[in-house]
Input
Amino acid sequence: MNLILTGMIGMASLTVSAQSDTNDTTIVKTVSKGRKYKTSVSFGRSEDSVSNNESAPTGRFGYGITFTRLDIGFSKLIDNGSFTLSPKNDFLSYRGFKTSTISFDLLYFGYRFNPNFRIYAAAGFDWTLIRLRRNITIQKNTPDLSYIEEPVDFDKNRFSSSYVHIPLNFEFRTKENQRGKRFYFVVGPEVGFLLNGKVKQISEERGKQKFKDDYNFQKVRLGGTVRVAYAGIGLFTKYYFNDMFESEAQKGLKNIAFGITLGIH
Output
């Protein structure tokens, strides 16, 4: 995951999005004094045929392949409205600064109404990575979320979920300023479909171990996202409305995520 994350951050400035009416590949390079080249590789058709704010087309569809809206941040569990876990969920006690989230979009389809407003749907992937404090192993193939205590001191005990997410975003943006930059405000709901759950453990006694199962994670996850950005870099918050798990004992246990967004355009 660290290698994947490093690669994603390195690619954050490379956006593959729909640009031309003929579906030809377009490579655009711009340069200004004292700045490095900025390259964009595109496929498909974009709502914006030009970058100038006043000249951007209106009433136009866009679609294609993209690598953008890379969200990197932290996840927090909310137990029936509290950030403190109840006794029945205490086994999920986690290390806050090592419990993270990462997501990005790969496909999109949108419609620009005017230079300052558009609606678009996207599709991508989302991970929540919980670093457990206790030396336990979450059990596979059980009707409820359960665990066993281990006589092992784990160097890493990570409990994670991965989803395909489909957000519907409403994007508002300002005019470009004299530096060619603008502010963005993006809000909208999203639905996620579970790919799998995973336990990854590292210890001196057992080495590296990985286990996959659904672990009672919610099969269909509903949430909402708010992003505020300037010049392609911003902040995001995601809140998931339904429970993290389908097991009855974890009823009311939800998830919130927040962090930085790279690649808003």
About this structure: The chain has one helix and 15 strands. The chain has a mean pLDDT of 85.
